[in-house]
Amino acid sequence: MNDTTVINPTDVKLLASRTTGPVATPADEQYEALTSSWNLAYPQSPAVVVGAADADDVQAAVRFAAAADLPVAVLSTGHGTWGSTEQAVLINVRALDSVTIDPLARTATVGAGVEWQDVVSAAGVAGLAPVSGSALNVGVVGYTLGGGLSPVLGRAYGWAADHVLAFDIVTPDGQLRTVDPQSEPDLFWAVRGGKSAFGVVTSLTFSLMPVPRFFGGGLYVDAVHAEALLAEFRHLTALDDDRLTVSFAFLRMPAAPFVPEPLRGRVCAHLRFSFLGNAVEGQELVAPARALAPALIDTVCERPYTEYAAVHDDPVAPMPAYERTRLLAEFPEEAATALIEAAGAGVDTPVLVVEIRQLGGALSREPRFPSAVSHRDVAFSFWVGTVGAPGRSGAASPPLESLIDALKAWQHTGSALNFLGTTDPAATAEAYSPQTLDRLRQLKREFDPGNLFRVNHNLVPTTQER
């Protein structure tokens, strides 16, 4: 380790005396467990890590970092870990794992370390559902503050950030603030979409939806049938029905025991389908896709919302993942052809997942309380991902970028913050409209002029006076 990252042991002891949770440096046994991340591609090596037991510990860690002039990084599950925490104070918030459901108010209040599976299970008892993402073990707070795109509820209810009612946050001055639209309107706007740039959110309260069940799952066919399946995908996305959400992916499946036998060693075309209407209507909507080709696996059926992860069936085990994303203004037939030529059957590429997600519907509408979530006018998101050796982002980037460029003719100027796969400042800037980016940087100057929270999607404070 570079000696500039070594903290005086006396200072470490002082920090530990002010926290309930553990404090560790690279020499300590707990360090590896406290710095472990779901995404193994970017090993974490902070100068010191604090396993926060409560909001008081978060305050102590932030104050310590400010006094030592060290940046702050935050770790929950680590799905969105795309960079290095070297020379930083890392705050691990996994122990902040409380979940409270208010079935009458239809709200959930969760700690910063809570994963979606815990909220979905607790809310499901009351017949309610959060605007959760595609995977069970993604952290609620990071997902929500980056916008939060649900493959089941998004088009009917909007972004997860649209349903935030209040949150507690430790700001760079070490203060714990309770933020809602009335108490701190600027922070309430900025943090919903600005992610961790303004502090550490320790608790989040958001609305739940009255959705106990839905019709959905995944249809897997051999990728040689992709042209027909993509044509049906485009037909379904053209229907004017916010209850319906579909996405399409090319999947290069390894010949490994953890892969279902019908998919092993294949290039698959995967139609993800979710519908909030009744099962009879759902069956009618999915029937044409089912008739196009023999299904390798078909999981589309009526199911409780607690089984929402069956739509994408994302992997849950930690892995070294690299990814890139762009937004698409449209996805015409020519774009579908370009996608097949770049990633379809017979193409030699190390990129394992290439997906198009349908947006629109409520995702395109402004919520009651505006936020920093941008590019609501976009029709589709385009994402590519692969796995590789840890610390080898340079080797993974060229094939990812090449596939992204394959649909360049239909790209929007923006991108989606939660799927960026990089902390490059230019890429971060593209996640916002120019007006939103300017306001975020102005507010960053107000709340974090020293840019203490910069080990993330860095929003550099503006140098101009407001």
Automatic annotation (TrEMBL):
Residues 42-211 form the FAD-binding PCMH-type domain. The keyword Oxidoreductase applies. Transmembrane segments: none annotated. Keywords: FAD, Flavoprotein, Oxidoreductase. Pfam families: BBE, FAD_binding_4. InterPro entries: BBE (IPR012951), FAD-bd_PCMH (IPR016166), FAD-bd_PCMH-like_sf (IPR036318), FAD-bd_PCMH_sub1 (IPR016167), FAD-bd_PCMH_sub2 (IPR016169), FAD-linked_Oxidoreductase (IPR050416), Oxid_FAD_bind_N (IPR006094), Oxy_OxRdtase_FAD_BS (IPR006093). Its cofactor is FAD. PANTHER family: BINDING OXIDOREDUCTASE, PUTATIVE (AFU_ORTHOLOGUE AFUA_1G17690)-RELATED, FAD-BINDING PCMH-TYPE DOMAIN-CONTAINING PROTEIN. Belongs to the oxygen-dependent FAD-linked oxidoreductase family. This is FAD/FMN-containing dehydrogenase. The lineage of its organism: Bacteria, Bacillati, Actinomycetota, Actinomycetes, Kineosporiales.
